[in-house]
């Protein structure tokens, strides 16, 4: 059963009982307000349709992200029963390699419109974004002889719920989470830097999601490097610019051992005017045992 997909009007009510009177932050409030104009369809066209969505060139950003994920899961180290995707947005590509290694996957997003978009794809409804080119590419990279239809069937079967989340809350999934916790692994793509007004907020958000992960569990983090804004239809959204060394430092401060950190420089022909991103980072980090964040 995919919980919340049949009730996409459900509103997220984070627990503020322990922060009453201290939790108001105008920077985060401005971010939340700006995101009410976010248009999933425009975001998907900007980033996952050609030219950025052209997977035919091995030097493209799409193949690079999919390779990073596939190669990391191929090590066999990032595996278990439960995985939470933090801030899924309207995308599913980040889980195409993960779904073979986890039987219980939770997708999450702050915005109802993004949870609705995910629901369209998970239920195979008309109007859903077509991810088949991405599914085909992942099957090609993994080389297991699996068809892209099998890949998508497996992912749909293993996503058990789509939940609201607020990474700026100490309990990001609320006080009565429907997701089994702590998770064996977390995935997060283009979330933390895109919803944080500054670097300290980015660090706190990382701390918050780390509480959802078991000691020894793994985090795969993808994000934008040195980006300050991006477009999603009528929404022009601010991003906290981060550099590779700042990502590494944040992970260490949140109690991780950084296993791998790679960067991709956005080529000129993919700088399409929908953002000012300079590059992409991919981080594989393992939560240290005995460290409390």
From TrEMBL:
<feature type="binding site">
    <location>
        <position position="93"/>
    </location>
    <ligand>
        <name>S-adenosyl-L-methionine</name>
    </ligand>
</feature>
<dbReference type="InterPro" id="IPR053384">
    <property type="entry name" value="SAM-dep_methyltransferase"/>
</dbReference>
<dbReference type="InterPro" id="IPR029063">
    <property type="entry name" value="SAM-dependent_MTases_sf"/>
</dbReference>
<protein>
    <recommendedName>
        <fullName>Phenylethanolamine N-methyltransferase</fullName>
        <ecNumber>2.1.1.28</ecNumber>
    </recommendedName>
</protein>
<comment type="pathway">
    <text>Catecholamine biosynthesis; (R)-adrenaline biosynthesis; (R)-adrenaline from (R)-noradrenaline: step 1/1.</text>
</comment>
<dbReference type="GO" id="GO:0042423">
    <property type="term" value="P:catecholamine biosynthetic process"/>
</dbReference>
<feature type="binding site">
    <location>
        <position position="48"/>
    </location>
    <ligand>
        <name>S-adenosyl-L-methionine</name>
    </ligand>
</feature>
<keyword id="KW-0808">Transferase</keyword>
<feature type="binding site">
    <location>
        <position position="109"/>
    </location>
    <ligand>
        <name>S-adenosyl-L-methionine</name>
    </ligand>
</feature>
<feature type="binding site">
    <location>
        <position position="43"/>
    </location>
    <ligand>
        <name>S-adenosyl-L-methionine</name>
    </ligand>
</feature>
<comment type="similarity">
    <text>Belongs to the class I-like SAM-binding methyltransferase superfamily. NNMT/PNMT/TEMT family.</text>
</comment>
<dbReference type="GO" id="GO:0004603">
    <property type="term" value="F:phenylethanolamine N-methyltransferase activity"/>
</dbReference>
<feature type="binding site">
    <location>
        <begin position="87"/>
        <end position="88"/>
    </location>
    <ligand>
        <name>S-adenosyl-L-methionine</name>
    </ligand>
</feature>
<dbReference type="InterPro" id="IPR000940">
    <property type="entry name" value="NNMT_TEMT_trans"/>
</dbReference>
<feature type="binding site">
    <location>
        <position position="114"/>
    </location>
    <ligand>
        <name>S-adenosyl-L-methionine</name>
    </ligand>
</feature>
<keyword id="KW-0489">Methyltransferase</keyword>
<keyword id="KW-0127">Catecholamine biosynthesis</keyword>
<dbReference type="InterPro" id="IPR025820">
    <property type="entry name" value="NNMT/PNMT/TEMT_CS"/>
</dbReference>
<dbReference type="GO" id="GO:0032259">
    <property type="term" value="P:methylation"/>
</dbReference>
<feature type="region of interest" description="Disordered">
    <location>
        <begin position="1"/>
        <end position="25"/>
    </location>
</feature>
<dbReference type="Pfam" id="PF01234">
    <property type="entry name" value="NNMT_PNMT_TEMT"/>
</dbReference>
<keyword id="KW-0949">S-adenosyl-L-methionine</keyword>
<feature type="binding site">
    <location>
        <begin position="166"/>
        <end position="167"/>
    </location>
    <ligand>
        <name>S-adenosyl-L-methionine</name>
    </ligand>
</feature>
<feature type="compositionally biased region" description="Polar residues">
    <location>
        <begin position="1"/>
        <end position="12"/>
    </location>
</feature>
<dbReference type="GO" id="GO:0005829">
    <property type="term" value="C:cytosol"/>
</dbReference>
């Amino acid at each position: 059963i995919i919980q919340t997909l049949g009730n996409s009007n459900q509103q997220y009510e984070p627990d503020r009982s322990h922060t009453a009177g201290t939790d108001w932050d105008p920077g985060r409030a401005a971010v939340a307000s700006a995101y009410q104009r976010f248009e999933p369809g425009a975001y998907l066209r900007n980033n996952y349709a050609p030219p950025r969505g052209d997977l035919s060139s091995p030097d493209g950003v799409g193949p690079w992200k999919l390779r990073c994920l596939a190669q990391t899961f191929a090590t066999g180290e990032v595996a278990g029963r439960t995985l939470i995707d933090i801030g899924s947005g309207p995308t599913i590509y980040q889980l195409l390699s993960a779904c073979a290694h986890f039987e219980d996957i939770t997708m999450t997003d702050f915005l109802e419109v993004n949870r609705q978009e995910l629901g369209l794809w998970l239920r195979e409804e008309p109007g859903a974004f077509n991810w088949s080119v991405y599914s085909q590419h992942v099957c090609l990279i993994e080389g297991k002889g699996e068809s892209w239809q099998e890949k998508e069937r497996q992912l749909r079967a293993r996503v058990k719920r789509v939940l609201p989340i607020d990474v700026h809350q100490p309990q990001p999934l609320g006080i009565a989470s429907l997701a089994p916790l702590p998770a064996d692994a977390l995935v997060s793509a283009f979330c933390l830097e895109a919803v944080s007004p500054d670097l300290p907020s980015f660090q706190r958000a990382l701390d918050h999601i780390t509480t959802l992960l078991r000691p020894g569990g793994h985090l795969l983090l993808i994000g934008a490097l040195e980006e300050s804004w991006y477009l999603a239809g009528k929404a022009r959204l601010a991003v906290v610019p981060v550099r590779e060394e700042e990502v590494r430092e944040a992970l260490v401060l949140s109690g991780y051992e950084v296993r791998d950190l790679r960067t991709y420089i956005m080529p000129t022909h993919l700088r399409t005017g929908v953002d000012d991103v300079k590059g992409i980072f991919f981080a594989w980090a393992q939560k240290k045992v005995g460290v409390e964040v």
